[in-house]
Amino acid sequence: MTGDDPDGRGDWAEAAEQRLLDAALALAPALGWNAALVAAAARRAGLSAGEALLVAPNGARDLAALASRRHDAAGLSALAGVDPRALKVRERIMRAVEARMDAAEADGQALRRWAGFLALPFNLPLAARLVWESADGIWRWAGDVSVDENHYSKRAILAAILVSTLAIRLSGGREAASAHLAARIDNVMAFETWKASLKPAAFGHEIAGALGRLRYGKG
Question: Is the CB of residue 95 less than 8 Å from the CB of residue 87?
Fold first, then answer.
């Protein structure tokens, strides 16, 4: 407990979130990613309906966000022993994306149901926000400190790369995903060409398409 949280509610909420997510990831391959999953996960995690509502007031959408952020944290944690300054920028992004892929693939079957949920039209804004967070974390780890338009361009293109690479990783395996990732990063390094061709609508279309491939297991 801390002075800012004298009754420990913050600690309880964080622990309950993780218990609920653990249960959801175990149940998702059979139940899908929906309200039924939240209810079943709450029972498995030993949470009442009221407690589950406190932890995940937006239901499956909150669980989807928790899963994505857990994968982000696990990917960055796996890089703890890597000094990004010792690598070229291209190598930094390769290492970080592959670490993020490894973290997500650990929940492979649940991840397909998660992707299908986020691919629904009304969830695409959430999907875009989550993958943007993932891209931002990777660029920050890689040492990017840009504050101009490049800040946004880098994250937009990496977000699209993350989703398309994960789709290929799950459908075609690590080798195919690594080849795809290497080719896409070559494009990213040709920065001026990339920036000139980037369009917000294209970003959204690519995210939606890649999520669809994840949903149906196609590369």
Answer: yes
Long-range Cβ contact pairs of 184-190 (< 8 A, separation 24 or more): 185/90, 185/93, 185/94, 185/161, 186/90, 188/93, 188/154, 188/157, 188/158, 188/161, 189/89, 189/90
**Which residue is listed with tokens 């952020």?**
69
Instruction: Give the list of residues 6+ apart from residue 209 with CB closer than 8 angstroms, or none.
Output: none
The gap from C-alpha 183 to its chain's centroid, in whole angstroms, comes to 21
pLDDT in tens, 135-157: 999 999 999 988 887 888 888 88
In the chain, the amino acid numbered 79 is L
d(CA 61, CA 69): 13
pTM of the shown model? 0.85
